[in-house]
Amino acid sequence: MFPILIDLGSLKVVLVGEGEVAEKRLAALDAAGAAHLEVYSQAPTAALAKQAGKRLKGARPAAEALQEAHIVFLAGLDDRESAALAGKARAAGRLVNTEDVKPLCDFHVPSILRRGDLTISVSTGGKSPGLARRLRRHLEGLFGPEWAGRLDELGRQRKAWRAEGIEIAEIGRRVDAYIEEKGWLS
Question: What SS3 class is residue 171?
Fold first, then answer.
């Protein structure tokens, strides 16, 4: 596995799913800023329909919708349907994540902790999502809501140093010193 962060604000994302699993995936995609998102559900729960709003497009995507997507998420589907949809999306050259079915995934979604723009993720490569969730909960206690403001503060400071023409290596040293001075990791 190679961990990366993807800006979902500029990509077309398709979510096909049912039930609470689809609701959770939609909430995660919204939190990640998925701006061009289409949702498909045969029997959307009231919560999923409300959350999706106008993005709810129908029961299942047509081949064209899968071809236009950059990333396809499948959540809460039975194994046969997941395999069929994953196959169609992959045939169109799209990246696929099938909730809790490792062989049908081109990538895994880690357990995520967000504090403003600070994103901390924990992955077990799909071996134990429960462990990843447990570790994330532990990290939530170490990195509280104040970290959103700390990151903003540090971002402004870093921008000022860059404007002064300070070299990247020196900025790295200054960031470390700033964090130490503030006692943020003590």
Answer: helix
Residue 186 CA to residue 179 CA, distance in Å, equals 9
Summarize pLDDT for 123-168 with one digit per residue, the tens.
998 888 899 999 999 999 999 999 999 999 999 999 999 999 999 9
Asked if residues 69 and 12 have their Cβ atoms less than 8 Å apart, the reply is yes
H helix intervals, 32-167: 46-52, 63-68, 79-91, 129-142, 146-163
Task: Give the whole-angstrom CA distance, residue 14 versus residue 8.
Answer: 11
Angle (deg, nearest 10), helices 168-182 and 146-163: 140
Question: Between vectors from CA 185 to CA 183 and to CA 186, what angle results, nearest 5°?
Answer: 65
The amino acid at residue 50 is: K
Give the pTM: 0.85
Q: Which residues are paired to 39 by β-bridges?
A: 15, 56
What is residue 109's DSSP assignment?
A: P
Whether 44 and 51 have beta carbons less than 8 Å apart is answered as: no
Give tens-digit pLDDT for 88-132. 999 999 999 998 888 899 998 888 999 999 999 999 988 888 999
Strands 118-122 and 111-115: antiparallel
47 alpha-carbon distance from chain centroid: 20
152 token code pair: 């903003």
